[in-house]
Structure formats: structure tokens, C-alpha cells
Design brief:
The protein is of the alpha/beta class. The chain contains eight helices and nine strands.
């Protein structure tokens, strides 16, 4: 049998499970976010900094996907948020079955927001729906402002992009305006938010407000 057929079957089975996950999340009134980005793009740092504000309004839980360690789940637990670690043992993405398997460890009836940090990779996770309501692709400006053009599938398959590490712009040859332009030339309706570390803390106000708006629209 040609390889392409096998791949299609895997994707079809994943989609069926993702639809089941999505129905269950909706039944329980849980809003789900799938965060995708390269290794080191700043996904966990973003979570560490937005969770304290989000957890004041919503009951939150995090699933961390990683090839091998539980470092990221430990970082999230420090913020007093329940964090479940999935190790893919080398697998380059999470799938809908892996998420479903963890759901008996989560009290969905008493949850508003489930955030999933996918395995660090800007290619493989984009083709696997987990049953989420919203995707956030994280691209750091340090990766270069041409990355939307190099990873168009990541842009086409998301609603939101967070451009992280914009505090580094003075030190590198990359520009957030160019990155926004590249994103919108691929998909004009993507919402783009910029985040950065400053001496006063981490700035992600626009993104946090947008998440609050979307969660409220589903759970209220
Ligand atoms: N200067 C700067 N560094 C950042 C920012 N966000 C993350 N980092 C650093 O980038 C590295 C990778 O971050 P991490 O959140 O672990 O990335 P992940 O692999 O995508 O989860 C860490 O050393 C972070 O401290 C930022 O906004 N500004
Ligand atoms: Mg991480």
C-alpha cells in the first residue's frame, strides 16, 4: 500500500478523535487552546506569564507535550496550576488520542480553560487537530521575520500568532512589522499579538485580553 494512504488513515483517525474531544469539551464548557511553535520560541515563558492573570478569572489546567522531560510541567506547577506532562518519547507532535488519554486525570466539570503546549516543532503539530477551540502559533522575532513565509502551513492553520521576544529586536536583524506583513500576506485574518520581557516584567496584555474574550464567549 502506498505510504500516502497510510498517512491519510492516521490523519482521518486523528480527526475523528479530535471531533470527539471537541464535543466533550463543549459539553463540559471547557475552552481549549493548542500552543504550537519551534523549540525555544518562548511557549512556556508565555504560559508562565499569562497564567497568573488568566487563573484569577478562570479555572485553568495545562497539558505539556515534550519529547523527553517534565521540565515545562514543573515550571507551570510553580505558578500553582495543575500541569500534566505527556512525553512522546521522540514523537514530534501531540495527537488527539494522547489528549483523550489524559482527560480522566482532569476534572472537566470544574474547569474553564485547558491550555496545551505542543511539542516544540513548527511543522508536525500543525496537521493534528487536538479538539481545540483556538490555536496560538508562537514565533519569536529572534527566529527571523521571514519565518511565516518558510512555514506557511503553520500560519494557514491558526487563528492567532504571538510574536515573542520583541525586546530583542534592537539586537537582531529582524523587524516585527515585516513579520506581521508576511503573516497577513499568507492569511489576512490572523490576529497578531506581540509579547516581550521588560525590566518591569513580561508584557502580553493584548493577547491576555483576547484569550479572556474568547473564553468568556464560550463558557458564559
Ligand atoms: N529576551 C527574551 N527572552 C525570552 C522571552 N521569552 C522567552 N525567552 C527565553 O527563551 C528561552 C526559551 O524559552 P521557553 O519558554 O523555554 O521556550 P519554549 O521551548 O518555546 O517553551 C528561555 O531562555 C527564555 O528565558 C522574551 O520575551 N524575551
Ligand atoms: Mg516549553
Amino acid at each position: 500500500m502506498p505510504k500516502i494512504t497510510v498517512n491519510k488513515d492516521v490523519k482521518d483517525l486523528n480527526q475523528q478523535q479530535a471531533d470527539k474531544n471537541r464535543a466533550l469539551f463543549s459539553e463540559c464548557g471547557v475552552f481549549v487552546i493548542n500552543i504550537i511553535g519551534s523549540p525555544g520560541a518562548g511557549k512556556t515563558t508565555l504560559l508562565e506569564n499569562i497564567l497568573p492573570r488568566l487563573s484569577k478569572k478562570f479555572r485553568v489546567c495545562v497539558i505539556e507535550g515534550d519529547l523527553a522531560t517534565d521540565n515545562d510541567a514543573e515550571r507551570i506547577r510553580k505558578a500553582n496550576i495543575q500541569a500534566i506532562q505527556i512525553n512522546t518519547n521522540g514523537g514530534c507532535h501531540l495527537d488527539a488520542f494522547m489528549i483523550n488519554k489524559q482527560l480522566n486525570a482532569i476534572d472537566l466539570a470544574n474547569l474553564d480553560l485547558l491550555i496545551i503546549e505542543n511539542v516544540g516543532n513548527l511543522v508536525c503539530p500543525t496537521g493534528f487537530d487536538l479538539g481545540e477551540d483556538m490555536r496560538i502559533v508562537v514565533m519569536s522575532i529572534a527566529e527571523g521575520d521571514d519565518k511565516p513565509h518558510k512555514y506557511p502551513i503553520a500560519v494557514l492553520n491558526t487563528d492567532v500568532i504571538a510574536i515573542t521576544k520583541t525586546d530583542l529586536m534592537p539586537y537582531i536583524d529582524a523587524d516585527t512589522a515585516k513579520m506581521r506583513e508576511a503573516i497577513h500576506s499568507i492569511k489576512p485574518q490572523v490576529k497578531v499579538f506581540e509579547t516581550k520581557k521588560t525590566s518591569a516584567g513580561y508584557e502580553a496584555h493584548g493577547l491576555i485580553s483576547y484569550i479572556e474574550e474568547r473564553v468568556n464567549a464560550k463558557i458564559i
